[in-house]
Write a structure and sequence with these properties.
This protein is α/β, with parallel strands linked by helices. The chain has 2 domains: 281 residues, NAD(P)-binding Rossmann-like Domain (Rossmann fold); 206 residues, N-(1-d-carboxylethyl)-l-norvaline Dehydrogenase, domain 2. A 6-stranded parallel beta sheet has the order 5-2-1-6-7-8, with helices on both faces. A hairpin with a 2-residue loop joins strand 3 and strand 4. It is globular and about 65 Å long. The termini are far apart. 49% of the residues are buried. The chain binds D-mannonic acid. The site of D-mannonic acid has 9 residues, from helix 9 and helix 13. This is Mannitol dehydrogenase family protein. It comes from Mesorhizobium atlanticum. InterPro entries: 6-PGluconate_DH-like_C_sf (IPR008927), 6PGD_dom2 (IPR013328), Mannitol_DH (IPR000669), Mannitol_DH/Oxidoreductase (IPR050988), Mannitol_DH_C (IPR013118), Mannitol_DH_CS (IPR023027), Mannitol_DH_N (IPR013131), NAD(P)-bd_dom_sf (IPR036291). Keywords: NAD, Oxidoreductase.
């Protein structure tokens, strides 16, 4: 076919296009030109665009108050290339199986690329008009030790930032520098609100920033104590990394192009600890909850929804499934996850105001069956070392403390190990992985080969992930060894079947294969 048969490419999303969009596409119901920057957000990925920016868009439509968002990226991708070109506008699609609902979100006023140099980020974060800083910087962005929550003083970026505090590259270093600039100029208070799936995320963020400030010396730590709040928050909405197919969906269904489209499920939740400094956007007017204690909500979400996702991701990859919805469509994996959550995870949860835990399990599992949410198992499997503490190891520890069994919860822990082991050269580099501990585990696998006991011993010795008292627990170790043996066999899913068919209080599993 010649060039003339190429379709004329559709117009790109821009403020000028808003008035000409199809009526079924919902548009910002307020005057964007009257927005004033008040919130800065670090990490403008799919999740932010599907969550905090949407809540803010709702708030602007309901109770304007001029809360504009300034987006900052300190890691790829570049925002100017996507959102910048569209003046911060983007399409948020809600997808539920065959249904598609489109909405243009207008709350992001401006975007700042600060990947090469922290100066542009610091300019925004230190400015007096910013009173709320939210962030989604992924679990590893906090530079903390997952098993203890303390700032990792050996982290190369932290070492760099303590030596070069005015040109930081880590999140704790950038925030500490921004707070120092605030202290030295206008002195206005600010809330730093973590929106990552890190347990007690506000406490961890407060720890890493304060520890960094203390190391710097001077008055900064005292100023932070008096002027900065670090509330914890539970955030929830499944919003996988967007793909070229999502951009095409917008073009085919609605007739325009949007390089920054995001796709999410209908469900969303945001529970924020009522602990603020300075002015606060009233997100509680549009569906968020401000509460005294986020912990019960956080345990529920991370152990049930995220625990199920992580379990399905590793078992899914081992079983040859590409996406969550495909893994959960397998009756055996669905049965395994439901039983794990019901029999072992639920008893570790605190009562959660207004929520029935068993209904929450069913609702979570049903969310994962949505075939329009194409969440890749490898995406969820990424950075498992930063996720398994809150999703799996903490409930395991709680079970063991109460004398409960962990024969199901130990399986995904071993499946995380098997996932990284199989990515090693000695195991044929079954797939590419991304995890701060991937290299360490590949080295272990290359050295040890297929002896599950020695493999488990070596990996359980990584104390940044496994706190030594848990790693020393005989029941936990024995389960992990037996599970690893089964999951590294030629029939990992057969092993899961065997676990499912065994009595749930069996003290130990049978090794699935001969040594
Ligand atoms: C997922 C989360 O990639 C992952 O780790 O488990 O991004 C998950 O989809 C969200 O926490 C849902 O709120």
């Amino acid at each position: 076919m010649g060039d003339r048969s190429q379709p004329v490419s559709a117009e790109n999303l821009s403020p000028a296009l808003l008035g000409r969009l199809p009526s079924e596409v919902r548009k910002p119901a307020y005057d964007r030109t009257a927005l004033r920057p008040g919130i800065a957000h670090i990490g403008v990925g799919a999740f932010h665009r599907c969550h905090q920016a949407e809540y803010t868009d709702d708030l602007l439509a309901k109770d304007f108050d001029r809360w504009g968002l300034v987006g900052i990226n300190i890691r790829p991708p570049l925002l100017a290339d996507t959102l910048g070109r569209q003046d911060g506008l983007y399409t948020r699609l809600i997808r539920q199986n065959d249904e598609v609902e489109a909405r243009i979100v207008g709350s992001i006023m401006r975007v700042v690329d600060s990947q090469d140099n922290a100066a542009p980020a610091l300019d925004v974060l230190a400015s007096p008009e910013i009173e709320m800083v939210t962030m989604t910087v992924t679990e590893k962005g906090y530079c903390h030790i997952p098993s203890s929550g303390a700032l990792d003083l050996d982290h190369p970026d932290i070492v760099h930032d303590l030596a070069n505090p005015q040109t930081p590259r880590s999140v704790p270093g950038i925030l500490a520098r921004a707070l120092e600039l605030r202290m030295a100029t206008h002195g206005r208070p600010v809330t730093l609100l973590s929106c990552d799936n890190v347990p007690t995320n506000g406490t961890i963020l407060g720890n890493v920033v304060r520890t960094f400030a203390e190391r710097r010396g001077g008055k900064l730590a005292d100023w932070i104590e008096a002027n900065v709040a670090f509330p914890s928050a539970m955030v929830d909405r499944i919003a996988p990394a967007p793909t070229a197919a999502d951009i095409d969906t917008v073009e085919q269904r609605f007739g325009y192009r949007d390089g920054a489209v995001v796709v999410g499920e209908r469900f969303r939740q945001w529970v924020i600890e009522n602990r603020f400094a300075g002015r606060v956007p009233r997100w509680d007017l549009v569906g968020a909850s401000f509460v005294d204690d986020v912990t019960p909500f956080e345990h529920l979400k991370m152990r049930v929804l995220n625990g199920a996702q992580t379990t399905l991701s590793y078992l899914g990859v081992l079983g040859g499934f590409e996406h969550t919805f495909e893994a959960i469509a397998d009756p055996l994996l669905a049965d395994f996850v439901r039983r794990m959550l019901t029999e072992e995870t639920l008893p570790t949860l605190m009562p959660v105001p207004g929520i029935s835990p068993t209904a929450y399990v069913e609702q979570s599992l049903s969310r994962l069956t949505n075939t329009a949410i194409r969440h890749r198992n490898h995406q969820i499997a990424t950075d498992g070392s930063q996720k398994i503490v809150q999703r799996l190891l903490n409930p395991i520890r709680d079970r063991l403390a109460k004398g409960g069994g962990i024969e199901l919860l130990s399986v995904p822990v071993a499946s995380w190990m098997a996932y990284l082991i199989k990515a090693s050269a000695r195991f044929g580099r079954a797939w590419q992985v991304s995890d701060p501990f991937a290299e360490r585990i590949a080295t272990i696998a290359d050295r040890i080969g297929s002896n599950s006991k020695l493999l488990a011993d070596a990996i359980l010795g990584i104390d940044a992930v496994f706190d030594p008292s848990l790693a020393a627990n005989a029941m936990f170790r024995a389960h992990v060894v037996a599970d690893l043996d089964g999951l590294l066999s030629n029939d990992p899913i057969g092993f899961v079947r065997q676990v499912c068919s065994g009595p749930t209080d069996a003290p130990l599993k049978q090794p699935a294969r001969s040594a």
